[in-house]
Amino acid sequence: MVQATPFLLLLSLALVAPGLCARKCVLTGRWANDLGSNMTIWNVDEGGKFSGLYHTAVGGSPNPIQISPLLGFQHCTIKDSQPTFGFTVKWSFSDTITVFTGQCFVDADGKEVLKTMWLWRSRVDNIKDDWKA
Q1: pLDDT exceeding 90 applies to what percent of the chain?
Q2: What is the average pLDDT score of the chain?
Q3: What is the pLDDT of residue 26?
Q4: Which cysteine pairs are covalently linked by disulfides here (predicted)?
């Protein structure tokens, strides 16, 4: 029985491991930022892949703002109960792309908070105009 105990412990850890990250920071759901933009992330699969929609409250396009699709990945291991993630938004109302990278934190009050950085890229007509993209 002593030899079976480590195996059972490893088996139970393997079965519980996918849920460890999810108990602390769950990306699935609706998120809003300080500027009024919001996003909805649908189910995060076992590999960390997710998709959803982003609705920005700010924009420099002359076109009306539209809800835009997003696609991303979450990186989560047993020790990473506050996971890192990244996603790309393909703006539906302009020919620009934004990539976000960040981490989910649980603050002292138990509230989940996403801290992100982003990079926005607009299309230009030629390589000489790359500096303004």
Answers
A1: 59
A2: 82
A3: 84
A4: 25-104
The encoded tokens of residue 126 equal: 């030629």
4, containing H or E segment:
helix 4-24
Residue of 71, 73, 74 whose CA lies nearest to 21:
74
Single-letter amino acid code for the residue at 35: L
Greater model confidence, 23 or 92: 92
Domains of the chain: 29-132 (2.40.128.30)
**Three-state SS for 129?**
helix
Q: In whole angstroms, what is the distance from residue 132 CA to residue 116 CA?
A: 23
- DSSP secondary structure string for all residues of 6-75: HHHHHHHHHHHHHHHHHHH----EEEE-TTS-EEEE----TTSEEEEEEE-S----SSPP--EEEEEEEE
- Per the model's pLDDT, the better-predicted residue between 2 and 72 turns out to be 72
Cα 97 from Cα 16, distance rounded (Å):
37
67 vs 53: CA distance, rounded Å: 6
pLDDT at 35: 92
